[in-house]
Structure formats: C-alpha cells, structure tokens
C-alpha cells in the first residue's frame, strides 16, 4: 500500500481516538454512500458530527484542513442525509474537520467544529 494511504489511515485512527477522549461516541468510520465516504460519524450531546479527516506529513503546502473543497462538501451533505435517513437519527448535524499533521516525532491534531462555516 502507498505510504500516503498508510498516513491517511493513521490520521483517521488518531482522529477517532481524539474524539473518543473528547466524549464522542464513534458510530461509523469510512461510511460510504455512492461516491462519498464519510471518515467519521460521531455523536455527542445529541449532535451528529460528520468528520472529514485530513492528514499531511507537513504544512509546507498549507494546513491539512485547507484541503477540503466544495465538491467534497457537497458529497458529504448527500451522504449524511442518507445516513441520517437510513438510521432514523434524531439529532442536530454538524460538519467538522480534524486536521492531523506531523510535528517532529509526533502529530498535531486540530479539531474545527462547524467547519463549513469557515469556507
């Protein structure tokens, strides 16, 4: 498997661990609907967080969270509508981004809640 795929998978695992520590219940990871994949679906205090995880080996070309584009946002909206309907979920929905990037021998995690209001 390509090294960037391994890094992406590690980033998603780190993001899920971070969210669990913050009190989120992870409902699904890598949930697929049509052409969209939702990295993490997590619930906390009756809010369903649709989490896009972006992982980078560094920040030379920008922060990881800066790589979420309009096309991805549209796909996520369609996918979460299908998820909520299929699971009959009665919760508010929020879109978050978790950016993960290498810093020295570790990783820095940045959690942006209501992220799409910033784009």
CATH class category: Alpha Beta
Largest β sheet strand count, sense and barrel closure:
5 strands, mixed
Spatial arrangement of strands, main beta sheet: 1-2-3-4-5
* CATH fold naming: Trna Endonuclease, Chain: A, domain 1
> What's the gyration radius in Å?
14 Å
- Please mark out the parts with pLDDT under 50 across 5 or more consecutive residues, or reply none: none
What is the count of helical runs? 2
Total E-strand runs: 5
Provide the number of structural domains: 1
Look at the helices and sheets and give the structural class. Answer: alpha+beta
Q: Write the element-wise H/E pattern from the N-terminal end onward.
A: HEEEHEE
If you had to describe this structure to a student in words, what would you say it looks like?
The chain is α+β, with helices and mostly antiparallel strands and 119 residues long. The chain has a single domain, classed as Trna Endonuclease, Chain: A, domain 1 (3-Layer(aba) Sandwich). The protein contains two helices and five strands, in the order H-E-E-E-H-E-E. The chain has a five-stranded mixed sheet with strand order 1-2-3-4-5. The chain is globular and about 45 Å long.
Descriptors for this entry?
119 residues; alpha+beta; Trna Endonuclease, Chain: A, domain 1; five-stranded mixed β-sheet; 2 helices; 5 strands; globular
């Amino acid at each position: 498997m390509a090294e960037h795929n391994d890094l992406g998978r590690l980033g998603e695992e780190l993001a899920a661990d971070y969210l669990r520590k913050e009190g989120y219940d992870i409902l699904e990871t890598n949930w697929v609907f049509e052409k969209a994949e939702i990295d993490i679906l997590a619930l906390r205090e009756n809010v369903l967080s649709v989490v896009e995880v972006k992982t980078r080996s560094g920040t030379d070309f920008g922060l990881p969270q800066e790589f979420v584009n309009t096309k991805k946002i549209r796909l996520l909206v369609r996918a979460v509508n299908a998820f909520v309907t299929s699971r009959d979920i009665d919760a508010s929905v929020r879109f978050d981004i978790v950016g993960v990037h290498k810093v020295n021998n570790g990783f820095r995690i940045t959690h942006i809640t209501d992220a799409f209001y910033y784009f």
